[in-house]
Amino acid sequence: MKVEFDEDTCIGMYQCVAEWSEFEKDKDRGKAVLKGAEEVEDAVFVREVPEDAELDAKFAARACPVDAITIYDDDGEQLIP
């Protein structure tokens, strides 16, 4: 499973931070940050989700009020949002 995070879309409500410890607050920029992610295009970050964190990652994606977080299964199919 992979998580994709669009930092430009993020509005800094930080609900994802409350749901998954791999997101953290960057108060200087007013954005969340996805730890350990690789930037794959301008302000879009991707990383693998460990099996034991899949539920937390899904909760983080569902909690985002602006859909800045997308979850994909191992076949690349979009699961959330």
UniProtKB/TrEMBL annotation:
Keywords: Electron transport, Iron, Iron-sulfur, Metal-binding, Transport
Chain coiled-coil ranges: none
GO molecular function, one term: iron-sulfur cluster binding
Pfam families recorded: Fer4_15 (PF13459)
Entry-linked InterPro entries: Fe-S_cluster_ET (IPR051269)
Lineage: superkingdom: Archaea
PANTHER family: FERREDOXIN (PTHR36923)
Name under which the protein is recorded: Ferredoxin
Organism annotation: Halovivax ruber (strain DSM 18193 / JCM 13892 / XH-70)
